[in-house]
Write a structure and sequence with these properties.
Structural class: alpha/beta
Radius of gyration: 23 Å
Number of helices: 6
Shape: extended
Order of helices and strands: HHHHEEHEEEH
Distance between the termini: 48 Å
Strand content: 5-15%
Helix content: 25-40%
């Protein structure tokens, strides 16, 4: 691609003008051109897919009184003083499972999973004090309390800190009050 751009006199990684786009499109080496959009990650489809409204509106189930254990790559900043308002005030215990590890989520997966399960949706317009979650990105149980267990991922992508016996992880979360994991 770099060579083609050079041959056509187009600067790489710069927005194309209409004449440059036409020149590029007329090249035999080009089979397809489409606009490039920067990806934006949202969690707004899970709500509908999981039919959460039925549990909330028909049964008044918001997760209140439940403590859920989540073992993943950490949560948000890892600092309970600066954590997202979608989780703030509902974390009853944290456990870092790898020596020298951290609660901070350096990969984003743990924060995404926690948000899908128990994000309060505050940053997207929810009001937990009135159980108003419609239109927000609130998770399935936005009023549940959390036990966060963070493992580490090394440079080769291998998970560190889980060990071979998952019972140990469940027992730790259970001891902290979690009855759902």
């Amino acid at each position: 691609l770099q060579q083609l751009f050079t041959q056509l006199g187009i600067a790489p990684k710069q927005p194309l003008t209409a004449p440059q786009l036409m020149t590029l499109a007329s090249s035999a080496a080009v089979r397809w051109i489409e606009p490039r959009f920067s990806p934006r990650i949202f969690n707004d489809r899970a709500h509908t897919i999981m039919d959460i409204d039925a549990a909330w509106l028909n049964h008044g189930l918001y997760g209140a009184g439940q403590i859920v254990g989540i073992t993943d790559s950490g949560l948000d900043t890892g600092d309970l003083q600066t954590i997202s308002p979608d989780f703030a005030g509902r974390i009853v215990a944290t456990q870092v499972l790898s020596a020298g590890g951290t609660l901070a989520d350096e990969y984003g997966h743990g924060t995404h999973v926690t948000g899908s399960l128990a994000g309060a949706g505050v940053r997207s317009g929810a009001d937990p004090t009135t159980h108003s979650y419609g239109g927000s990105f609130a998770g399935v149980a936005p009023e549940a309390s959390l036990v966060i267990q963070a493992f580490e991922v090394n440079d080769s992508g291998a998970i560190q800190g889980l060990g071979n016996d998952p019972y140990q992880i469940f027992a730790q979360a259970y001891a902290a009050g979690a009855r759902i994991h």
